[in-house]
Amino acid sequence: MGYRPLGECIESVIDHRGLTPKKLGGNWAQSGYRALSAKNIKNGALVQEDSMNRVSNEMYRRWMPEEVERGDVFITSEAPFGEVLYWDSDEKLVLSQRVFGLKVNRDICDSRYLYYWMQSPFFHGELRGRATGTTVVGLRQPELLRCIVKLPARDIQTAIAHVLGAIDSKITLNKQINGYLAA
């Protein structure tokens, strides 16, 4: 078991924070690709999906030269700060306001394990210690990449991610059942 900076656990970072269609010579669209912003990530889930803006195919190609893929991990840089989402879909997204997209180096790290580690109190302590700002707390990319990740052997990472994923699935199912019962 070892410890590594987050930057050594990923292949690349998609960072288009602050980018808007107007800055790319266009505008939001009525249909097309959804744009993920920090307000759409909460407690490991996609929220307020009806508020997500959309961009055309042409705008998507200009905005996202590196595409989002299943297994990528997203983390918000501010407002809200430190929210994490594991992307378990083949849907292509535009990463917009205040979201880093992390492409995990799967030779070193199980992407689902990394997602769970990034939700841990240990990782959030690292984030808070590296954050800046008083009114709006935020984190710059270089500081994010310095945060420490605890890395057991790859097969143990996968086992941990499997168990935690099963627990998450059961929680989701129970919430759905509770919703049906309430209705």
UniProtKB/TrEMBL annotation:
GO molecular function: endonuclease activity; hydrolase activity
Top EC category: hydrolase
Pfam family, one: Methylase_S
InterPro entries: Restrct_endonuc_typeI_TRD (IPR000055), Restrct_endonuc_typeI_TRD_sf (IPR044946), Type-I_RS_S_subunit (IPR052021)
Cross-referenced Gene3D superfamilies: DNA methylase specificity domains
Source taxon at top rank: Bacteria
Alphabetically ordered keywords of this record: DNA-binding, Endonuclease, Hydrolase, Nuclease, Restriction system
Annotated family: Belongs to the type-I restriction system S methylase family.
Protein name: Restriction endonuclease subunit S
